[in-house]
């Protein structure tokens, strides 16, 4: 069975569809831009210490940042753990413990929009020492 690495898949998609719209959510980004943003984010995660197999919680609303967070986590070797952006902080903390998450990427969500400290509290209560906050 041939194994296709994620980076090879993303490179192929960007080479084939380059300037075509890939995601439209408030703004439009092309496949080439998705590749560039994903690679940058993956490199950032690796520099910060994300290792292969690390569980990385993604707690954000759907959009371009969410997609880049997901794809970048996978490219960095992490396991993306997707949280519903409507969950409250206590539920997120419990789920973080349950899955053994060691990182958290936070974007816009209902809880952190209402309380800017809620995401940091959820990470701390969930035993996550390292968080990446977006917007």
Descriptive overview:
By secondary structure, the protein is an alpha/beta fold. The chain has 6 helices and 6 strands.
In short:
The protein is of the alpha/beta class. The protein has helices at 6-17, 31-48, 64-75, 89-99, 110-114, 118-125; strands at 21-24, 28-30, 55-59, 79-83, 103-106, 130-133. A hairpin with a 3-residue loop joins strand 1 (21-24) and strand 2 (28-30).
Mean pLDDT: 88
In total, the number of domains comes to 1
What percentage of residues falls in helices of 4 or more residues?
40-55%
Q: What's the overall geometry?
A: globular
Tell me the CATH topology. Answer: Rossmann fold
- Uncertain segments are none
Strand segment tally: 6
The chain-level structural class is alpha/beta
Output the strand order for the largest sheet. 4-3-5-6
List the helices and strands and how they pair.
Elements: H1 6-17, E1 21-24, E2 28-30, H2 31-48, E3 55-59, H3 64-75, E4 79-83, H4 89-99, E5 103-106, H5 110-114, H6 118-125, E6 130-133
Parallel strand pairs: 3-4, 3-5, 5-6
Antiparallel strand pairs: 1-2
Helix pairs in contact: 1-2, 2-3, 4-6
Structural features:
19% strand, Rossmann fold, alpha/beta, single chain, globular, 49% helix, two-stranded antiparallel sheet, 4-stranded parallel sheet, 135 residues
